[in-house]
Design goal:
single chain; 310 residues; alpha/beta; Arc Repressor Mutant, subunit A; D-Maltodextrin-Binding Protein, domain 2; 3 domains; five-stranded mixed sheet
């Protein structure tokens, strides 16, 4: 049955029987018979032969088939890891915000509590949310710590909210009068380090300026890696705004001032995306537990948070 699902998914992914057969290095009649057999078992057409588009039933079957194939791949990886290393494993990925400090803290906690679990951080911990969701569905990832964005919902994945950050403006602490800055108007002529155009964090920051009756900053540098952004703020009079939570950034603010400018807008929350079946895997469950405990240990960022000088 799993082989039939794999052939069915290949037909959709490659746009037809001929291309799927070529990609899988099998004969076209074999893959056609597999599709017919699958439709016979469900007593329903899965693909409209006139357009080669999925029928409603075909779309449902494909979604569930991909999850089963992902779990098959995950099982094979688990067996391999257990046979070679005597340990379970979990493949994870994070968002830019979680990559600064939080991911390290979670892995450190997991290593202390579960010495028999191997962690592999796969892929770029960036803002390519579509890739993260696809990797989860394929079984290339078990867990993704990323923003919960209504624009990037994916059927077949479970969302577990982790925390809600607050938007905070960051400037260099040694700058004269930095701690007295209390309005965005005072920073409008500065050079701003901004998330990439089109990203959710960028939209939140620009929307805040508009809510204050201001045009968004024109002099900007686009950076998706918060570590690079914070390093630049330390060395210049540039300014940035980040979605802040102490579990992600707390010990990164030497020589930086976190301003108490109140924001009307809030960034999107950070959550855990996982396949339903993967929740039952001990290694996945242990990682999620470590992530939840790590965030809970740092609490929430209060609305009037201002870090003390060190």
């Amino acid at each position: 049955m799993l082989t039939q699902y794999r052939y069915f998914a290949a037909i959709i992914d490659h746009g037809g029987v001929t291309a799927a057969a070529h990609a899988l290095a099998i004969s076209q009649p074999a893959i056609s018979r597999s599709l017919q057999s699958l439709e016979f078992q469900f007593d329903a057409k899965l693909i409209d032969r006139a357009t080669w588009q999925l029928t409603p039933i075909g779309a449902m079957v494909l979604q569930r088939a991909r999850l089963l194939l992902a779990e098959q791949g995950s099982l094979m990886e688990d067996v391999k890891a257990l046979a070679q290393h005597g340990e379970a494993q979990v493949f994870v990925n994070g968002a830019p915000m979680t990559a600064v400090v939080l991911m390290r803290r979670i892995i450190t906690r997991l290593a202390a509590t579960h010495t028999n679990i191997r962690v592999s951080v796969r892929g770029d911990n960036g803002a390519n949310y579509a890739w993260k969701h696809e990797a989860l569905l394929k079984g290339d990832l078990d867990v993704a710590l990323t923003i919960i964005d209504p624009a990037h919902q994916t059927k077949g994945l479970v969302q577990l909210p982790l925390f809600e950050p607050e938007l905070r403006v960051i400037v260099r602490r040694t700058e004269e009068g930095a701690s007295r800055i209390s309005r965005l108007e005072e920073l409008i002529d500065r050079r701003w380090i901004m998330p990439p155009m089109g990203s959710s964090p960028r939209a939140v920051v620009e929307n805040e300026f508009r809510l204050c009756g201001l045009e968004p900053p024109r002099d900007t540098i686009e950076i998706s890696d918060w570590r690079i952004a914070l390093d630049l703020v330390r060395e210049t009079n540039w300014v940035t705004a980040i979605p802040y939570h102490p579990a992600c950034f707390e010990d990164q603010f030497d020589r930086l001032e976190v301003l108490t400018i109140p924001f009307k807008a809030r960034p999107l929350g950070i959550g855990i995306y996982v396949r339903p079946f993967a929740l039952r895997r001990p290694a996945t469950a242990a990682f999620i537990e470590a992530a939840t405990e790590t965030v809970s240990a740092y609490g929430s960022a209060p609305s009037s948070m201002h870090l003390p000088h060190r």
